[in-house]
Amino acid sequence: MGLYKTTPPLSGRMGALWCLSGIADSAVVEYGCMGHMAYGRTFLNRMGAFGSKLYSTHIGETEIAMGDTSRLTKVIRQILETEDVKTIFLLPSSVPEITGIDLAAIAQELSPQFPHSSLIPLSAGGFDICGHKGVELTMLQLVKTLSKSTAPTPSLTFNIIGSCADLYNFLPDAAEIERLVSNTFSASLLCTMTSRTHVSEIEAMGGAHFNLVIRREGEATALYLKERFGTPYLMARPYGIDGTLEWLTQLEKEFNLSANKEFVQQEYKKAAEQITVMQTMAARFLRAHKAESKLTLAGHADVTSGIARYGRSAFGFDQTICFCDCSCMNSHDNPYTTDEIKLELAKDSKGFLMGNDELLRMSKRKPNLQIASPDNLWHHAYEPPLVGYRGAVHLATVWANEIMQRD
Amino acid sequence: MTGIQHLKCLSAVKSMKTIHPLTPAAFPGNHCPMHTALSLGTRIKGVSTLVIGTSECGYYSRNIPITSPYADQSLHWTYILDSKEVVFGFRDGIINTIREMDAAGAKIILLLATCVPELIGEDIDSICYEIQPRIKARLLHIPLGNFKCGSYQPGYWKTLKKLGTLTEKASIKTKTVNLLGRSILEEHIPMPEIVSVLKRNQVPLRFLSPDSSLEDFVSAGDAQMSISLSPFMNPLAEYLEKEHDVPFISLHDIYSVKEINQVYTVLENHLELKIIPDMMDLKKEADSLQTQAAMQLKDTSYIMANIGALQPLPLSVYFSELGMSPIMIHMEEYYPSDAKWKELLLARDKNPILCLMFHENADKTIIQELCPHLVIGDWGGRNQPKPPTLQTMDFYGQVGYERTISLLNRITTIQCRSKEAEDHGII
What is the pLDDT of residues A102-119, one digit of tens each? Predict the structure, then answer.
């Protein structure tokens, strides 16, 4: 860790909270100072996450000195008495992490007092776990703890794994994936992990016929479900028109599905029709302005690489440069966005830059170029997606409008 | 009803340690003092900040400097502790960071220490003492552990008081009056009448608040007087009085016409100008309303919820003068001056329960079961007819006769409507 001149990375605790925030009929209790949750809830609401009820116990000096955890018991009792909630997640917090409060032991000790409820202590505490690792650990813990043994559902069903609040545009993207898969394969969604979902949907995940993992943090969960239920999975994010077609074709082959070709072709045609003129305009502009033919993307590694492929293949950007937002995902093709890199990117006015809200503000670019968190604006589930056919049209429009401003 | 046996009455309270939440769960709770300290720091031109803490502190608070109009004029960085530093301390890391900020041109650095650095006990004051002679930037350490307080308010007053330490000794006093607690840019909120009177009399005013500059704080010691318009500002005003012989009057915590007269008279004598004649109409109106309210509001019981930037005990003292009785008060900060207001309330045989309200829905149930005639401030039942609500959030930065007139007009109107509704069987 150390010095950050721009937004620092998420902690594992934050990743856990953001991952849980989309699960309705549950509560999250942070045993710790309330400032975290006051901030956290505002952020999550802004991003459109309105699932779990988010509480804090707050703690004072006396509780810290005496190791008194009675506030936690009282909060759990209050929630169970007043809310229609049976599952309570106990979120680690920085101060109790230091004083050595053992949430797992407390949950075990309290369980007999609340026999009809589940108290689930989360494991993503500590000071060296990054946010994405927190998401990964929490999703895995959710399926290990909640999913029930079940046979495959009679009709074709699937899960989406990895649609969590830390991923920018998570709600519209998950909705587009569901639309495409359900219409192409006549399949029903069992659970979107973890946005707009319920505890009961996570419990039923084992009944799905296939799992769609939309980010690398979800692979451990998918592997667990594969081992336990034999559910096959595919890890990919569909970007661009051809990319989406390839993805659907891959699903058809991998999972031995029967696709509604008419729907797929119609969607392809509709999207292609809409972007063709924009492609022509872009080709002319990028040929005439070589210095502008550069698409720089900073965000989640799986997002940046997908959009880069689409930008290169469909719009002819000469150069696509990707930066990831987590040091754990640092690679040659997708290096980690350090403060120095952000400051350099902000200075460069040439080319197209897509990133998080802060980077766009620093570089004086427009908010519609956003593809990553953190976010300081309000968002909702009905915004256009970035993935799928509709996402391809949306991205094309964003680039075309950017060209209009520059031409 | 959920038990309230865990709460203490005013007579048993000497600090925030004995003021407990009304209901256990904070949903989601208040901001921490780092949030307000950073909000203030990033809105004072020329001040740089360094948030020291965890990713939560650095990440969530980042929108504050991003949206500050003065963000480009100074540095707003964060220092995030890792697992080794949590155990072995972060001395070297913080020294290197301070050096880097100094080299980058920071003039004043507010070191905003959040919960974890406070808990592990790193001696930041010693670090500042050690490194200060070797750098140009002035270091101000502000300890802001959330576990040490009930809410965000210490973030304001601690930061302001610390900025007061930058004030330079003035050999000559000027005619300037320090106006503490309002920004000159707040055109959307009416300025108190007293400010207009001072302006009309050509008294030079120095606004000390967000949107002020560092230089305003540095030169505040040459003022002939300070006027405090906010409870957050009193610690700074007291400091300026003690260290720089700048006397102050506090206007935000007085409501009765008699007290306002007294304070304005002090002001008149000190500034050698006439104030009250300019406000005679307001004074008369306030006087008349006060007499009428004292008859109408006698024996009215109330619960005080979130009253915004007002200090609860002084307001309760005024209500007690009108014959009203507090049942329960939500109190987010216990200021040193509250000892005086506490004695005044107890002397009038008023001993309300003190609590912290952090969960609107759960707290609403208890408030309703306590059956007050009136709820003062914002709460979960704000849109319900019974008990009726007296909103006070827009009294931010308001003082004097005009605030008393607004307050009394609102409260008597609400009470009349409530009585009429009851008489007609509506509620």
Answer: 999 999 999 999 999 999
A34 and B23 within 8 Å at the Cβ level: the answer is no
Hey, are the CB atoms on A7 and B62 less than 8 Å from each other? yes
pLDDT tens sequence across A185-207: 999 999 999 999 999 999 999 99
Q: State the smallest CA–CA distance between residue A120 and chain B in angstroms.
A: 18
Using the predicted structure, report yes or no on whether residue B364 has a pLDDT greater than 90: yes
Between chains, do A55 and B17 touch, taking CB under 8 Å as contact? no
Taking residues B65-94, what's their average pLDDT? 93
Counted across chains A and B, CB pairs separated by less than 8 A come out at: 171
Q: Quote the percentage of chain B above a pLDDT of 90.
A: 89
Share of chain B above pLDDT 70, in %: 99
Residue B1's pLDDT is what? 46
Distance CA B12, CA B353 (A): 10
On the question of pLDDT at A144 being above 90, the answer is yes
* Nearest-by-CA chain A residue for B365: A82
- For A331, half-sphere exposure in the C-beta direction (CA atoms, 13 angstrom radius) is 11
Q: What is the pLDDT of residues A202-241, one digit of tens each?
A: 999 999 999 999 999 999 999 999 999 999 999 999 999 9
B60 in A contact zone (CB under 8 Å): yes
A window 341-400, beta carbon within 8 A of B:
357-358, 361, 374, 376
Return the half-sphere exposure (C-beta side, CA atoms, 13 A cut-off) of residue A327: 10
Nearest Cα to Cα of residue B251 among B350, B154, B178, B142: B178
Per the CB < 8 A criterion, the answer to whether B156 and B40 are in contact is yes
Residues 16-55 on A with a CB inside 8 Å of B are 29, 33-41, 43, 53-55
Helix (H, G, I), strand (E, B) or coil at A42: helix
Structure tokens at B83: 């697992």
Contact list in B for residue A62 (CB cut-off 8 A) is 17
Mean pLDDT for the stretch of residues A311-322: 95
The answer to whether residues B372 and B327 touch, using CB atoms and an 8 Å cutoff, is yes
C-alpha dihedral over B321, B322, B328, B329, to 10 degrees?
Answer: -70
Q: Which residue in B has a C-alpha nearest to residue A76's C-alpha? A: B25
> Does the CB of B92 have a partner CB in chain A at under 8 Å?
no
Q: Which of residues 46-105 of A touch B (CB under 8 A)?
A: 53-64, 71, 74-75, 77-79, 82, 94-95, 98-99
Task: List the end-to-end C-alpha distance of chain B, in Å, as a whole number.
Answer: 22
Q: Are A398 and A370 in contact (CB under 8 A)?
A: no
For B134-152, what is each residue's pLDDT tens digit? Answer: 999 999 999 999 999 888 9
**CA atoms of A168 and A356, how far apart (whole Å):** 9
Query: What does the alpha-carbon distance between residue A139 and residue A133 come to, in Å, rounded to a whole number?
Result: 10
Do the Cβ atoms of A82 and B119 come within 8 Å?
Answer: no
Q: How many other CB atoms sit within 10 Å of the CB of residue A355?
A: 27
Chain A residues inside the 8 Å CB shell of B361: 82
Q: How far apart are CA B199 and CA B184, in angstroms?
A: 12
pTM over 0.80: yes
What's the sign of the alpha-carbon dihedral A168, A172, A176, A182? positive
